[in-house]
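Researcher: We're teaching a course module on how sequence relates to structure. For the next exercise, students receive a sequence and then see the predicted structure as tokens, so they can try to spot secondary structure elements on their own. Here is the exercise chain.
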Amino acid sequence: LNLTEARIEKALKIIELDFSYSSRMSSLKVGDNKYLRHLNCSNSYLLGTATESQTLDISNCKNLKTIDLSYTKFTGLIFPENNVLNSVKLTGSSIKNIAINGAEFLNSIDITGCENINRFELNRCNGMEVINVANSSIQNFIVTNCDNVTDVNLSGCKSIAGFDVTNSYNIETLNMKGNTSKIMEDLKLYSMYKLKKLIVSQTTSLHTIRLPKYLNEEEAFKAAAGQEAILWEGLEYLDAGASSLVKLQYGSADVEDNVVDMSQLNNLTYLKVNQSTAMTEIRGINYTGNLSSLFNECKTLVKISGKLKNTTNQSTFHSLKERSEPLKQ
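Model: And here is the predicted structure for the students to work with:
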């Protein structure tokens, strides 16, 4: 068969549909097919071009486990609530928005090459551990109540205006390398209490980073005011090399001074700030490691206070304008 249109509803015995590599098919309607498990429309490059079929509604396919719309022209996709999906593949498609709620078994979403995507939203998708939307055109990134997400890659994104990870408390790694979107002007990470690795290198729009405020148990319990206290042990890995970082602070309250405050980062095992273009002061640094290129080409940096221990014999400072007070080493 070489169909141009398909409408499938209440097909009680169909478990799998495969419309991949169709050269003519432009329209697909999938109704209430409660036993459908797998839907593959990949590489059907005309699918979704029919006016009435630009959005694929699978909201009544509540037992669907895998869907592949790679290299199709669908611009919208309506998912069922509280579904059993475990794989969504949209590689190279024309999808503009993703909103998935209550997919407890979902563990894979591929939006590689989706040049038109604006909104990426997951809620209560506890099977997801790694989210990689690098180099995408996403404008709104919303990952809420996703208990098991530990790794988020937003590197190379240039259009993000909204960033919400409310109640996704277990994110340990956040990669925003080369992210020049508006949120980098004031990067609010103060609710990410499990954050250990932060990469913000080559971010030319970065100004302020706000990290969680409370480090020790006493402060955390006091702040919790009778609720469950969340402890933060601080970053272990910070890469801000070749960035425009000016201020690093703790908590949501504004701090007037343009200072990179490292006084609560006592567990750092990796630190990179070389070639920073706007940083003027680092305060409270406490770091042991290879310092040979740590401050290399930090031409705006004029003041450093804290404690440094160099594990090599190589020189620590390169191309610094001024070091206005001595460092403990």
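Model: If you want an answer key for the exercise: The radius of gyration is 24 Å. DSSP finds one helix and 25 strands in the chain.
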